[in-house]
Write a structure and sequence with these properties.
This protein has 1 helix and no strands. It starts with 21 loop residues before the first helix and ends with a helix. The protein has one helix at residues 22-81.
């Protein structure tokens, strides 16, 4: 995915000048559709990665909670022995 020509694009809602050449227009539209499809694929990959990372975070939170409970129990046992 490339954003090199991002600033060169016309503003949203601002119509581009029609070249009058049907072939050029069709090629331009096909290129835009391919760019949109590629961007959607990239977005889907990012969303999948976010879900994967969130799952990992949730697992680590659960493990940390278990470890903290274990530490608390050990601390209480050590305090009782003194």
């Amino acid at each position: 995915m490339s954003f090199n020509d991002f600033g060169a694009a016309t503003a949203w809602g601002e119509p581009e000048q029609q070249s009058g050449d049907i072939v050029k227009d069709a090629i331009r539209k096909e290129r835009i559709l391919k760019e949109i499809a590629a961007a959607q694929g990239d977005l889907q990959a990012l969303v999948a990665r976010v879900h994967s990372v969130q799952s990992d975070v949730n697992q680590l939170i659960s493990e940390n909670s278990t470890l903290q409970m274990y530490i608390d129990n050990l601390t209480m046992q050590m305090a009782k022995r003194k």
